[in-house]
Amino acid sequence: MLLDLSEEHKEHLAFLPQVDSAVVAEFGRIAVEFLRRGSNPKVYEGAARKLNVSSDTVQHGVEGLTYLLTESSKLMISELDFQDSVFVLGFSEELNKLLLQLYLDNRKEIRTILSELAPDLPSYHSLEWRLDVQLASRSLRQQIKPAVTIKLHLNHNGGHNTNILQTDPATLLHLVQQLEQALEEMKTNHCRRVVRNIK
Amino acid sequence: MELSEYVQKGFQMLADPGSFDSNAFTLLLRAAFQSLLDAQADEAVLDHPDLKHIDPVVLKHCHTAAATYILEAGKHRADKSTLSTYLEDCKFDKERIELFCTEYQNNKNSLEILLGSIGRSLPHITDVSWRLEYQIKTNQLHKMYRPAYLVTLNVENADSRTYPEISFSCNMEQLQDLVGKLKDASKSLERATQL
């Protein structure tokens, strides 16, 4: 599958052959850093001054590179397809190799960042538990009432939620049994066939 | 057990065969237990024809006294000798003491369950449901091809009678971690019960 690069995108990327490979590598590093932490326009100004071009040009170059990397990572295109897509830009052999290396080196991390953009449910972080026995209450003395107190840690939208819950021994065994069945499900023929065939 | 004069007076009246004959005594006793343990019980519990001849004020006093005593006895897990001692002090004859203790014994379990269920507690997990899905793509990321679980815990809030749900997603490793920890908890529970 080839990347479809718009004219505007190609124009922005046309800046890259005008600087040497060290600069392109640096742009690549800045692009990934911006994906991790958000963009910082001051960086463009500094680079623009050093290269003696407008900061807009630098910004377009970095953004063009970012888009190239994110689109390629999103679609998970093969090495060959990446090379063919970049070939149309008419860059030098050296620059093409550099771009391919940038893609391969950063693909995994970029995909992780992109996965965080999906509609998000709270996700499991960890669980702590404690065994309690209730001995008495205001309304009834001399009790022996076992309970399991659970602290469930969830992540949601970058934040951390904690739920404190309780359950009785019978329900605990039921929970374990149900969730073990859930895990077993992945090993069934049906699921294995789906995983094998949808690629 | 701390019992007020009001309760004692009520019992003294209940002990008197002149105010309450055998039949009325039994009916009132049953009515007291019924008021406490039957969720559908209401004021009509005292509306029995064999109780009509008794002054309603006296009836209510004795009913309240009996119910109060029953709750206190249940709360402190009173045994037969404690019950007998108090009833003797209130001038109950042997027959009525026997009747009371038998009735109490019959209802003891329900009483203790009722008393045990009163009180604050943490939200209580009652059930779990799960869903296994195979993620293929999002609009931001194609070719994902990974399984994911969606787990929902059904929770009950005893005091507010609400039933919130807690849902979360997890991958296989996370679910294994969760199950592993719950299994540790249940093994600990097993060991503790063998001590």
UniProtKB/TrEMBL annotation, chain A:
Leader peptide range in chain numbering: none
Protein origin, superkingdom: Eukaryota
Residues covered by the COMM domain: 123-190
Alphabetized InterPro entries for the sequence: COMM, Commd2
Protein name per UniProt: COMM domain-containing protein 2
Native source species: Daubentonia madagascariensis
TrEMBL record, chain B:
Cleaved signal peptide residues: none
Transmembrane segments: none
CDD domains, per database record: Commd3
InterPro entries named among the record's database cross-references: COMM (IPR017920), COMMD3 (IPR037355)
UniProt domain COMM: residue ranges: 124-193
PANTHER family in alphabetical order: COMM DOMAIN-CONTAINING PROTEIN 3
Annotated family: Belongs to the COMM domain-containing protein 3 family.
Identification of the protein by name: COMM domain-containing protein 3
